[in-house]
Amino acid sequence: MNTVFFDIDTQIDFVFPSGALYAPGAEKILANVAALNHRAPVVISTMDAHGEDDPEFREWPHHCVAGCLSQRKPHATLLEKPVIVPNRACDFSIGGARQIIVEKQALDCFTNRHLESILQVLRADRYVVYGVVTEICVRLTAFGLLKTGRPVELVTDAVCSLDEGAAARVLAEFQTAGGRLTTAVLV
User: Fold this and answer.
1) DSSP letter string over 115-179?
2) Helix %, strand %, coil % for the chain, to 5?
3) What is the reported pLDDT for 4?
């Protein structure tokens, strides 16, 4: 089975207390995220890469500004020689890469103009999703992947939320839509 893992937005601004949009407790999932990334045959890591005046800042505080330290992923979540795919017209090659970092300027990773073609090249039979935050970007990714018709699993001990009630509703909706909940040990 060809499985692609999705590491959603595990960036310094979201996962550490000093981050601009810290999800309380997110640092506690980093060991599981790192273990999953290192175990993955291929991992797509989504990454906010905002400009100084991105429209998203009308709704959210400044965060993950491209090139800033707080935009980076924690070292433990990175694999050797990742391929970075910006959200603009460009040439890139994912051949042989185990980690593909997909930059985005909106909540939904499917707004990256290259993601659909990357998924076509990878031809996954199954997707495994984890990261931050459960009720926002993780939800958008998980439900977007369900639309592919492939099995999608969400790793409950490798996600963190801002609102536990909203996260519980997302998990229930995800299961109702055909998704499966799992843990880092069972993946």
Assistant:
1) HHHHHHHHT-SEEEEEEE-IIIIIHHHHHHHHTTTS-EEEEEEEEE-S-HHHHHHHHHHHHHTT-
2) 35, 20, 45
3) 98
Unique residue bearing structure tokens 């990742």: 82
pLDDT at residue 153 in the model: 98
- Domain 3-182: homologous superfamily in CATH: Isochorismatase-like (3.40.50.850)
Classify residue 65 by its DSSP letter.
B
Closest CA to 7 of 105, 111, 98: 98
Cα–Cα distance, 181 to 117 (Å, whole number): 27
Q: What does the pLDDT look like over 61-90, one tens digit per residue?
A: 999 999 999 999 999 999 999 999 999 999
Exposure class string for 129-166: b at 16+ Cβ within 10 A, else e: bbbbbbbbbbbbbbbbbbeeebbbbbbbbbbbbbeeee
The contacts of residue 152 (CB under 8 Å, 6+ apart) are 126, 127, 128, 129, 142, 145, 146, 178, 179, 180
* 130 touches 32 (CB < 8 A): yes
DSSP state of 74: P
CA torsion angle 54 55 56 57 (round to 10): 70
